[in-house]
Design goal:
The chain is mostly beta strands. 10% of the residues lie in helices and 43% in strands. The strands form four sheets. Strands 5, 6, 7, 8 and 9 form a five-stranded antiparallel beta sheet that branches. Strands 14, 15, 16, 17 and 18 form a five-stranded antiparallel beta sheet that branches. Strands 1-2-3-4 form a four-stranded antiparallel beta sheet. The protein starts with a helix and ends in a 5-residue tail after the last helix.
Length: 257
């Protein structure tokens, strides 16, 4: 049985990645979007529930509304834990895994939207068979107002973990950065006239370019590709080329081999 375990884990990871690719186009009752790290946390899924509350925002096009956050532990018992909060959905493409606390175990980062107060970026922890909210940014404050994640990690090399997102990428178009410390997220910096999503896209463009320690985004009018750095508590942007399609951001994120 021990000899088979690595193959079982690889099969689960392949299935999980397959589900991620299918989830945005699927509207069936079993729709889910998953990521997995079987060396640490296990498999993490956003799950659509047919009896879940309907938000009706549809900012992510055909992506289902996720009602449940579920973790299948990587321990031998494969314990499953889940969380479902009344009056909320998870308004995202897939969960993200990153070690926010520095303890070597990844946390779960996901966009969570309140029916009344709009979106926030939430960090959940899975530990001891319990799934709980660790920290979160404030809600935007109004229904049908969304944020698009950009990056999670040590964005400025100071040893602390930052989380970055675009606040209302179709309206406000403001990059916001928060830093995790002492069990909470504290605001670090903002920079306007930037975006990474168009209404109806089932993906989020751009992201983190680690080889240059910068975030790749589009200008607010979608005419330019911008590289943004966090240094000394401030955000600075430089123009790196013409925006023609989402692939322009993908190309700008490429790092030398």
């Amino acid at each position: 049985m021990r000899l088979l375990r690595p193959y079982v884990r690889r099969a689960r990871l392949a299935l999980c990645l397959w589900l991620v690719s299918l989830a945005p186009a699927s509207a069936d009752n079993a729709a889910r979007s998953c990521v997995a790290d079987w060396n640490s946390i296990g498999e993490v899924c956003l799950i659509h529930s047919p009896d879940g509350a309907q938000y009706g925002h549809d900012v992510l096009g055909a992506t289902p509304e996720w009602h449940i956050l579920s973790v299948m532990s990587s321990d031998p018992l494969h314990t499953v834990t889940a969380i479902r909060q009344p009056g909320h959905i998870f308004e995202d493409i897939a969960p993200r895994l990153a070690d926010v606390t520095g303890d070597g175990i990844p946390e779960i980062i996901v966009v969570q939207s309140s029916m009344d107060r709009g979106a926030r970026l939430a960090v959940f922890r899975s530990a001891g068979g319990t799934l709980s909210l660790l920290a979160a940014t404030p809600y935007i404050g109004q229904r049908n107002r969304w944020l698009a994640p950009v990056a999670v990690g040590d964005l400025d090399g100071d040893g602390a973990v930052e989380l970055a997102y675009i606040d209302r990428p179709h309206l406000t178009k403001r990059l916001r950065v928060w830093r995790y410390a002492n069990g909470a997220l504290g605001h670090v910096a903002d920079l306007g006239n930037l975006t990474n999503h168009r209404i109806g896209w089932n993906f989020i463009a751009g992201g983190w370019r680690p080889c240059a320690s910068e975030m790749i985004l589009a200008s607010g009018d979608w005419s330019r590709v911008m590289a943004v750095r966090l240094e000394g508590g401030s955000l600075t942007a430089r123009d790196v080329g013409t925006y023609r399609a989402p692939g322009s951001l993908t190309a700008a994120m490429a790092c030398p081999p």
